[in-house]
Amino acid sequence: MPFSRLATATTPTCHVGLGLAAVGRPGYINLGRDRDLGDDRGVDALRERTRRLLDAAYAQGVRYIDVARSYGRSEEFLAGWLNARPDVDDVVVGSKWGYTYTAGWSTDAEQHEVKDHSLATYERQRAETDALLGDRLDLYQIHSVTPDSPALTDKELHARLAEAAAGGLTVGFSTSGPAQADAIRAALAVTVDGEPLFRTVQSTYNALETSAGPALAEAHDAGLTVIVKEGMANGRLAAPHAPDALRAVAEETGLGCDAVALALVLRQPWAGVVLSGAATLAQLASNLHAPAVDLDEAQLTRLAALVEEPRAYWERRGQLPWH
Average pLDDT of 94-107? Predict the structure, then answer.
């Protein structure tokens, strides 16, 4: 398992990963992108922004990098950085298949990505990922599995994924939507020749959306590495959008709302890697203070009151515009 490399790391930030969803394409649903990225969102500008983020993250101990076929040119940007940094031989690289990027580098496209969990899509996107990342790819995840996803029942797909696993690739899945817990438990039951297929799970969990927590604990107990995405709720937990309770606790700690929000996730005993989705160096630096946040029981009680009903949370997320 490539994640054993993280288990032996001793830096405070070794369990914080960097996700490139926000910088691999010009449009995304994170709040504040106009402020974060400015007007120049050309390919060269975002490639350079990604390079600087990766350099800074690596220098500060981050060792997991997360990309996806649907994150615009994120795989391409990461591959270029890896090729330019032959000294970097200890990062764990994860990508995802199942969504195709369709926005054509536009922020106002009618459709930004198309979901398809078929075997044909897996084969096409696996070849595309291999062409860019080759043997630097450690983890390949099915992107955004839901309880009704055909990827949970397609035996031919399972067989192909098991072949990839036998060849040394770690196979995982990510989840989204209000029924994440159901999707996680269904995926845990998938086996090939009596052996569990999936070795990692990546799910949304944050101060507003905690419903996947018990299922993620079950996945951890079953031996899967748990990766947490959207710990900042697509910017809703970052200043200036953060709820009053989070702002108050952040003031008490002397650190940012983002660091407190990510610290809430890091303190979960099942959380193996928590992703930063930083788009700027300042955001990254603030995110990486999360391991230093020490919250007392009274503060945790106040923050627990922020939890939303899952369907309400995902409805609001679905209404966020692509900036």
Answer: 94
